[in-house]
Amino acid sequence: MNAPRLLPILAALCATPLAGCDLANDLLNSNCSDFDQQYQDDLATSAVLNETIPATPENFPMGVVLNNRAVNYLFARLAETNLPEIRESFRVLGQEVTIVIAPEIPLLAIGGNDACRECLAASVPFGIGVGFNNENPPLGGGQLDAQMPVTMLAIDNRKTALTAQFEGLTVTGLTVEIPGDLPSNVLDPAEDIAARALTSYLQTRFRSARIATFDSWELGAGEILLAGRGPFIFPEQETMLVAMQSNLPLTGAPDLQVQSAMPEGADIGFVFHPGLLLSLTRRMNYEGVVENSVNDEGNSFDGDSSNKVTLQTMESTDEQLLRTTARLWRTDSLCGTADLSASLGLSVGPGQFAFTIQDVEITGGEGFGSLLNADSWAGGQFIDSLVDTLNITINYDQIFGGEEGSPAEMGPFQFNIDSRGVSVYLNVLEGV
């Protein structure tokens, strides 16, 4: 808005009661250098990223909740799904006895026995047969039960993996049904050898087996990093939570509560603290992914605009809304600020969750700010780019399954916004 266009407005304001003339005086006397310095200071804080990511799971701003179905869906994405036969032999009374073991993919369960409640349990079905003199015997069945630690492993500075430590596997049970009428001097050693051979195979074949790999968001310059910590194990709920830490600076320690439960029917949950969403969108605002140079209607401005915008606050409420505030800065000629407030609701759209604007209003400001029209901002490009960035953030798709590392196919299920944060829940899509 240039000076000639503003003069009729100023005259009209001074023709109204004294408050209007006071506003006109504020517009004319605003100190542009002060506003510009305040804007530059605010922008500088948006650019900051921490040099390191917290190494512990405490005070995490984002969580990933998995149930047993999700864990096995991800783990089963192996490079080779047909596991090879294991053959062992020994001699009894001069005869060579051959043991054939045909293992299947382990089935994992969250929570071990009393000796290690924070372990993963594993059930490994297998076929087994015993023959003589290198013959191929008929196979019966068996199952080895075991448990192992579960940890997070750093892959590089952008990726971490949730791993089942098969190297530290402890056998907790074994059942074997070998066909044929075998004497005890064959059957007893055959069972012992089979247990040792299968245990050794699992420890060497899977080692630190990847259940899932978590990558950082593909946003902007790609400098925002994520790293999984923990995990927390909840045997009673049969869920685990990976605490996601970031190099984004957060105001104070985030108080995102550990959530162990999900809605019935959900397989994976992502929980976001509003402080993380604010810090992320402020960084994207600094990079220009969220519009930062705008006109008076909140649309992008080609060239060097004296209208700048920065994000200020973000709060999740028990009314199922994410409330955010932004500040528009006019730093040249007719200067001042305008404070903008917007409420965003969440919905389930085709294949994803989507934020939508519920309302936009101007809540205050200095200088020219009181002249802005909030209605024009609701459909402006600043709001659109903010919503797009939030949608990419909560529809986190940088989770990859097993050692194959293929993208996890998930479908939106339910969502919730309350004072704790924004939560979205998904189903794994089997057979995709």
Give your account of this protein's structure:
- The chain is an alpha+beta fold.
- The chain has three domains: about 5-30, no CATH class; about 35-50 and about 250-430, Bactericidal permeability-increasing protein, domain 1, CATH 3.15.10; about 70-210, no CATH class.
- The chain has eight helices and 21 strands.
- The chain has helices at about 5-15, 20-30, 30-45, 70-75, 185-205, 275-285, 375, 380-395; strands at about 60-65, 85-90, 95-105, 105-110, 120-130, 140-150, 150-155, 160-165, 170-175, 210-215, 225-235, 240-245, 270, 305-315, 320-330, 335-350, 350-365, 400, 405, 410-420, 420-430.
- The strands form four sheets. Strands 11-12-1-13-21-20 form a six-stranded antiparallel beta sheet. Strands 2, 3, 4, 5, 6 and 9 form a six-stranded antiparallel beta sheet that branches.
- The model is unreliable at about 1-15 (pLDDT under 50).
